[in-house]
Design goal:
The structure holds 2 protein chains of 2 kinds.
Chain A lengths: L6 E5 L8 H12 L4 E4 L6 H10 L4 E6 L4 H14 L6 E6 L3 H9 L5 E4 L4 H20 L1
Parallel strand pairs in A: 1-2, 1-3, 3-4, 4-5
Chain B lengths: L2 H7 L3 H13 L4 H8 L7 E7 L5 H14 L4 E7 L8 E3 L14 E7 L11 H10 L4 E5 L16 E6 L6 H5 L9 E4 L7 H13 L11 E3 L6 H24 L3 H31 L2 H10 L5 H12 L5
Parallel strand pairs in B: 1-5, 1-6, 2-4, 2-5, 6-7, 7-8
Classes of the chains: A alpha/beta, B alpha/beta.
Chain lengths: 141, 321
């Protein structure tokens, strides 16, 4: 399992049309992380993101949100993934989300992590590498 | 018993995408799953789409899927994008053009990175086609990376090869060169609303007029333009699908389908032999440090690769008397 390439779906949903950061993250995960990124482009529905994640067999779905709709989008995404028996796919976020809501989303098990706008992509890359390594170690034992 | 293989045969989408991933990652147990599904393959018609970067392959693929779905056919897509030679990472963006089929259970789209393989495809494409095949897809579309002149590996996998050309890429000499232009069963002139398109169209026709068609199939040339009215684009792509159907019938009628299949089977057995014979030897050479030594000696010009290869063959291969 060590040799498995990490695959990440980087997506945007709803009418949130600021793709600069999502593209930057996609590019950085490719270059610094050596990962395979499935980039979905803008204006995707929850269902489109979930179906894509399943057909592409990704480890992680990363949604970048700058529209304030995170309290709706993340729970819907988590539920849709679970309904498709994709509980194992890790959901993370990036964007403008207040601390208190990050806490709420993490504690309810909706997301594994949300990186606040301005987090260095190096940190995101490291987080992904660490979490995937831990998960694969767990699967092996 | 192989769980994954069984699940794929039962139509489990997650299992299928996992199996494709195992193929890409070269996971040890994958061959067992393949053995399980291989007897059930060989039903789907495989369409290859190739052409230069930005020629419109993904957009055409999307519309082809749409037309085929209108005709009640199920479709699988393998879309290949390049892996970075420096970091091993990749951004797979072909899916963006095909997102409208995301929720259609009759369509399965999978992006693949080349992972260093030459020829315009990923090494896992051949077996990936088998997976989509046993999922029961009527048509499988394989979209290559944007290619130049020599990346023609698609002919080992596709029954019908579509070469997509766009205006403004060079003069008529390009059209009579060998390689990409020789492998087309169907030519598509995309962006035909652009300047230079009529000339390109004529050049391809000229080239075809100078060619011979021993199989009795003269590749049709179809003009499409993605920036035209949507219904015109749809109408033109429907023409392509008609020609794909014609080509398929031609292959069956003239008993050529078997020949195309044979090409693929040949490539597969070559690959399997390489995995069974060469790779274990390479693994040993790497493990005991011999390979490194050999490279050192070669760099110092103490010997040549052919002598070394002969030595290795003598040592590891049992010669029949």
């Amino acid at each position: 399992m060590k040799n498995r390439k990490i695959r990440v779906l980087v997506g945007k949903t709803g009418l949130d049309s600021d793709a600069t950061k999502a593209r930057f993250i996609a590019r950085s995960l490719r270059d610094d992380g050596g990962m395979e990124i499935i980039y979905t482009g803008l204006y995707r529905t929850i269902e489109e993101l979930v179906e894509s994640a399943i057909q592409e067999d990704v480890d992680i779905v990363l949604v970048s949100i700058y529209s304030g709709s995170h309290m709706t989008v993340f729970p819907q995404l988590r539920e849709a993934l679970n309904n498709k028996s994709a509980r194992d796919i890790i959901l993370i976020g990036e964007g403008l989300v207040p601390d208190i809501q990050i806490k709420e989303l993490k504690e309810s098990g909706t997301v594994e992590e949300i990186f606040k706008s301005g987090t260095s992509v190096k940190k995101i890359t490291e987080w992904i590498n660490r979490v995937i390594a831990e998960k694969r170690n767990l699967e092996k034992n | 018993m192989n769980e994954l293989g069984k699940k794929v045969l039962a139509g489990d989408v997650r299992a299928a995408s996992r199996l494709i991933r195992n193929l890409e990652d070269n996971i040890a147990d994958t061959k067992t799953s393949l053995k399980h599904i291989f007897p059930h393959t060989g039903k789907a018609h495989v369409i290859g789409i190739t052409g230069a970067p930005g020629a419109g392959k993904s957009t055409l693929t999307d519309e082809l899927v749409y037309v085929l779905r209108k005709r009640d056919k199920t479709v699988g897509v393998l879309a290949v994008d390049p892996t970075s030679p420096f970091t091993g990472g990749a951004i797979l963006g072909d899916r963006i053009r095909m997102i409208r089929h995301a929720e259609d259970p009759g369509v399965f789209v999978r992006s693949m990175a080349t992972r260093g393989s030459m020829g315009g495809l990923s090494k896992a494409v051949g077996d990936g086609i088998h997976v989509l095949d046993v999922m029961g897809k009527d048509y499988i579309i394989v979209e290559t990376v944007g290619v130049g002149q020599q990346e023609v590996e698609i002919i080992n996998h596709a029954h019908t090869v579509m070469v997509v050309q766009v205006p403004g890429m060079g003069d008529e000499i390009q059209a009579i060169k060998a390689g990409l232009m020789e492998i087309a069963d169907i030519f598509v002139v995309n962006k035909s609303d652009r300047e230079g398109a009529p000339k390109l169209y004529k050049e391809i026709l000229n080239m075809l007029n100078m060619s011979q068609f021993p199989d009795g199939w003269r590749p049709p040339v179809i003009k499409v333009g993605t920036s035209l009215e949507p219904h015109e684009f749809n109408r033109d792509v429907a023409k392509i699908v008609d020609e794909i159907e014609n080509h398929r019938e031609h292959l069956i009628e003239k008993n050529l389908l078997a020949g195309r299949m044979r090409r693929k089977t040949q490539a597969e057995i070559n690959e399997a032999l390489r995995a069974a014979i060469l790779e274990p030897v390479l693994d040993r050479l790497v493990a005991n440090g011999e390979l490194n030594e050999m490279v050192d000696r070669l760099t110092k010009r103490e010997t040549d690769p052919y002598t070394l290869a002969d030595e290795v063959a003598k040592k590891y291969l049992v010669q029949p008397e």
